[in-house]
Amino acid sequence: MKIQCYLFVIILLGTKSFAQHIKQSDKDLVKELTAEKLNLSVANNKNFWDREVTKIALVPTVFFGASAATWHSKEDIREIRNRYIPTFKYKYDDYFQYVPAAATFGLKAAGVQGRNNIKRTTISYATSMAIMAILVNGIKYTAKVERPDGSTKNSFPSGHTAMAFANAAFLDKEYGLVNPAYAIGGYGIATMTGVGRSLNNRHWAPDVLAGAGIGILSTQLAYFFVDKIYGNKGDNLSLLSKYEGNENPSFLSIKVGYTSGLASLVETEDNESLAKMGWEAGLEGAYFFNRHWGIGGQIMVASFPFSEEKLSAPENHQIDAKVLSESMGNLTFSVGPYYAFHFGEKWNLMLKALGGYSTGADGNISLKVRSSDIDIPDLENGQLQIASYKPADTFQFTAGMALTYNITDNLGVTLYSDFNHSQAKMKYTINKSILEEGDSQINTFHQPFNYMSLGFRLTAYF
User: Fold this and answer.
1) Which of 37-46, 48-57, 124-133, 399-408 is predicted with the least confidence, judged by mean pLDDT?
2) What does pTM read for this prediction?
3) Domains of the chain: residue spans and CATH
């Protein structure tokens, strides 16, 4: 009887222990399922800017949009090149396109650890080149856009630029987190390659912008697919994890905006403004020593088209003509201090005070003759040059502010406003054939040239 009681107690205790074990296992299972559900919920509800597809497509989409936006203005943009440096012929872009890739493999050969080991790096690079080649050549020989120099009909998109930006993105992927200088150098050289394609009159601006987008997209897709095959984000994740992001707001940006003169540059005899509204575009960047103070600069092109409808052709019933004029413009290089205010993690306001060198573009004012009953001397290709103008190089001061919303840790969208001041000196030379007796052929005027600019900036932090 005692033995039976002992057995009953042992069975009871064992059953209780087993039941407790089952309950504990159920609890653990519930916890695991709940955690998985929470993780799945977090993954499905990621911020739009943190999603993989957004990270891959965002920057290329911006470049493709810029290419489309400039398509109908490509000849006007080339006119700027023709007016400032029409004889530019330096083929550095043929070699610069390969520099970022050469630097990447050079660092690997030197033993500098990056994101991946050499085998995986090579596979990722080969995949990027394959994607880029298919996209570029597929579009080139379908679109058949004539080059600006008229040599061939395979201008769009720029293969050199696509190669350069694919290589820059490759260098960024492998070593950008190790040291931001690698990424800055790579994209800087890629930008110089793209600019070189336009300066050498081999590509239109939309060709270059589309090529940059294709290059970055090719490398992004290559790493996406290769990472899926390997099942992780890189061979040396433990190495990359120890590098912390730079909290200082150092940046590089592309900017474009409208300009408005605070006084007219040129007026008609009736005091109507001929050149007041215009546009500007350029590059801006700054390196910050801490979260507030930095030093930087910008390279900007500004253009002020003449209001040709306000220019009256000479009153002569024997001539049907229209006055044409090249827009007034200037190219400015300036540097100076920056100061940043931060409003939480997403917003910052930057102030700047820059000084630099401004060079103006020479231009012509012509009479476009549609029909004439009389013989007009000095008429070439239906046009008679009335006058030419030449602005003097001068010092320009720029003060401005920029409000940025940070889409991600590395990218922001900026609204900016700048005030620009210089002392303009313009020399006009009148065609002798249209001068009346006693008129001066050369006229020079001095006056302050002040204008405001308002526009947007795509800001990349490093």
Assistant:
1) 37-46
2) 0.69
3) 52-241 (1.20.144), 251-461 (2.40.160.20)
